[in-house]
Design brief:
Low-confidence stretches of chain A: 177-183
Strand order of the largest sheet of chain A: 13-12-11-14-10-15
Number of strands of chain A: 15
Structural class of chain A: alpha+beta
Largest sheet of chain A: 6 strands, mixed
Binding site for substrate (chains A, B): 151, 173, 184, 264, 386, 391
Mean pLDDT of chain A: 92
CATH topology of the largest domain in chain A: L-amino peptidase D-ALA esterase/amidase
Number of helices of chain A: 10
CATH superfamily of the largest domain in chain A: L-amino peptidase D-ALA esterase/amidase
Shape of chain A: globular
Oligomer: homodimer
Family (chains A, B): Belongs to the ArgJ family.
Number of domains of chain A: 2
EC number (chains A, B): 2.3.1.35, 2.3.1.1
Function (chains A, B): Catalyzes two activities which are involved in the cyclic version of arginine biosynthesis: the synthesis of N-acetylglutamate from glutamate and acetyl-CoA as the acetyl donor, and of ornithine by transacetylation between N(2)-acetylornithine and glutamate.
Protein name (chains A, B): Arginine biosynthesis bifunctional protein ArgJ
Distance between the termini of chain A: 30 Å
CATH architecture of the largest domain in chain A: 4-Layer Sandwich
Chain lengths: 391, 391
């Protein structure tokens, strides 16, 4: 159940003192090969953190030897000095691993950071943490690494999928500020399958498109979102591409579903599925408009199957983005079709919203494409966690 | 201070029993001429209420004789039957006013409704209310009318601006679900100035663009938004067009500012001004991205001058929509430049967020255009009011 399940990877998670809580806050993942294929997907926010700028350069040649991750500071909006800190971290990782006999260059060390924006990292602590993490590297260190990247997460997010002789493992963190263009989070996925650089890049993008990019907890896009895929080829097995895509997507789906389930202050996980749209994009746009509606999200918190708020959110999507006849909209909430033909449907009192999971289906009657976007309800605890503490 | 300040208008607000509270819930406004110029701006939501469909037809010929407004029911998502109810209401208004000796046809009676979606209006009560309102029409009935359109509003919103021999008066309702494409609300503006149909339409659109369309309390667009302008010409004075535009915009600005000040559950009114953008549209897009950020809005509730959440929201606006260099962003909150060059600026502890009004200025350093969008903070009371009660 961790990133060290696939062969060819070492990992560690240690306490470096970046977090005031004294919990693990530095993670290191090393790909021992024989392959060192790497791919990444990053936030589309134009305001992005120094480690994102750095890691984009690292993956440009599709090679990643190691990933160093820290919680306790995002290293975002920290200027050229922040970028220098990231660079120095990668160089230190390379030096320490070289001293341990590994053939790793700083330009192949990806860096991920998460925590407060606008604050420089305490570099002495971080570099000492790199030393500790290097010393602690182990073939079953994945779980420690998953703990070290947690911020407000209450549980680790880990997943494994296995093929015939190969496997995919993943870890992620993120418990708020989940949004399109990728949930706010860090994620590292490993595999021992033999795949090419082109496959790594294309298959990761496809997996992210329908998983991480379709969780939208609060519509806010972070400066640090990163998903990395590292392939070691250590199994020696070249998988069927469709099988590998399926495994990669499964791990991505489980991790992203885990992010929603652990979202800050949420009391409901809500899957909004739009069916019979003219295209995937149209379906996703309508689903996203609904998952972005504070009124809808507050209604679900109040266990109110308020279909009026669902269709009025759907109606804000421009016609050219999602063609449909607004008079034909049907809305089904947890199995009860409460809105039929944009008007009153079955008895709304039949809808049971007492459980954690809520399923909303909107039928556009316009085509045959569909998409699901996951979100959370808007609760008192969300407001509390995001107003009482800076982040 | 009311819509009956300009000459040539009668108004009334009565209790028809649509509201369970027993408060006034039906308003009637009659333009006695000599001109009967009318213009309107409506919600751009593709899911729109029956009265919006009807009133769009009414203003098509730029003539409006009367407006009937009700709270206690939005008549949205009520199907063909709901449209028939609106039609019947307009016909009843015309009949009653004709019986009172006025030359008014149903096709020139605009209808506005506000309240719950998906519920038919109690037509017997509403039509009896029309009778009462007609009997109560008075040249100083504006204040009663303003009371009759209130829903969760705690105060009426009224405004008057005067020119040389003419004036503009306005009333509005709305205390939640304020969003672009127009704040969710009903608004009637009257004037006794002599203006043409073309002026009414163009000058109203311009006034709405920079006022009602720039308040965005919670990002949710309603099904019933309507702003109507009625010109009686009763002053006999033809105003300078720029003077009239200024007065119309002033009334629209005061009313829309009043909507923000009375927004459901808010504890801060927040003006986000984006300066030095390449265009008005670019400035507005960036301002709107910030006013839509739940994280930013929750931070202001917590009196946290969190500039990181400001610039990370700005960074979500695509480059082609708003060209700017993300490394140059400055953020000033209540006079303190807390972020300079996308990094740490002056001491954030100097920012005083204890007052109701908050001013956030974002400098894009890209051009010379600017725009201000008003919003509210995200509070426990917002969640409570929108989860505990259906609407």
């Amino acid at each position: 159940m961790s990133i060290t399940h696939p062969q060819g990877f070492l990992a560690a998670g240690v306490v470096a003192g970046l977090k005031s809580t004294g919990k693990k806050d530095v993670a290191l993942v090393v790909n021992e090969g024989p392959l060192h294929v790497g791919a990444g997907v990053f936030t589309t926010n134009r305001v992005f953190a120094a480690p994102v700028a750095w890691s984009r350069q690292v993956i440009a040649d599709s090679r990643v030897d190691a990933v160093i991750l820290n919680s306790g500071g995002a290293n975002a909006s920290t200027g050229p000095e922040g970028f220098a800190d990231t660079h120095r971290t990668a160089e230190h990782v390379a030096e320490v691993l070289q001293a341990a006999g590994k053939d790793i260059s700083a330009g192949d060390v990806a860096v991920c950071s998460t925590g407060l924006i606008g604050v420089r990292l305490p570099m002495e602590k971080l570099l000492a943490g790199v030393d500790s993490a290097s010393a602690a590297l182990s073939a079953d260190g994945g779980d420690d690494a998953a703990h070290a990247i947690m911020t407000t997460d209450t549980v680790t997010k880990q997943s494994v999928a296995t093929g015939e002789g190969w496997s995919v493992g993943g870890m992620a963190k993120g418990a708020g500020m989940l949004a399109p263009g990728m949930a706010t989070m860090l994620c590292v996925i490993t595999t021992d399958a033999v795949i090419t650089e082109e496959q790594a890049s294309a298959l990761l993008a496809e997996a992210v498109r329908t998983t991480f990019n379709r969780v939208d907890s609060d519509g806010c896009m972070s400066t640090n979102d990163t998903v990395l895929l590292l392939a070691s080829g250590a199994s020696g097995v070249t998988p069927d591409e469709a099988d590998f895509q399926a495994a990669l997507t499964q791990v991505s789906a489980e991790l992203s579903r885990g992010l929603v389930a652990d979202a800050e202050g949420a009391s409901h996980d809500i899957a909004v599925t739009v069916v019979n749209a003219t295209s995937d994009d149209a379906a996703e746009a309508v689903a996203r408009a609904i998952t972005r509606s504070n009124l809808f999200k507050a209604a679900i918190f109040g266990q109110d199957p308020n279909w009026g708020r669902v269709i009025s959110a759907a109606g804000t999507v421009p016609e050219d983005v999602a063609p449909f006849d607004a008079n034909l909209l049907d809305v089904t909430i947890n199995g009860i079709q409460v809105c039929r033909g944009a008007g009153v449907g079955d008895d709304r009192d039949l809808v049971d919203l007492s459980g954690r999971e809520v399923r909303v289906e909107v039928d556009l009657h316009a085509g045959d494409a569909s998409a699901t976007v996951w979100t959370n309800d808007l609760t008192h605890d969300y407001v509390h966690e995001n107003s009482a503490y800076s982040s």
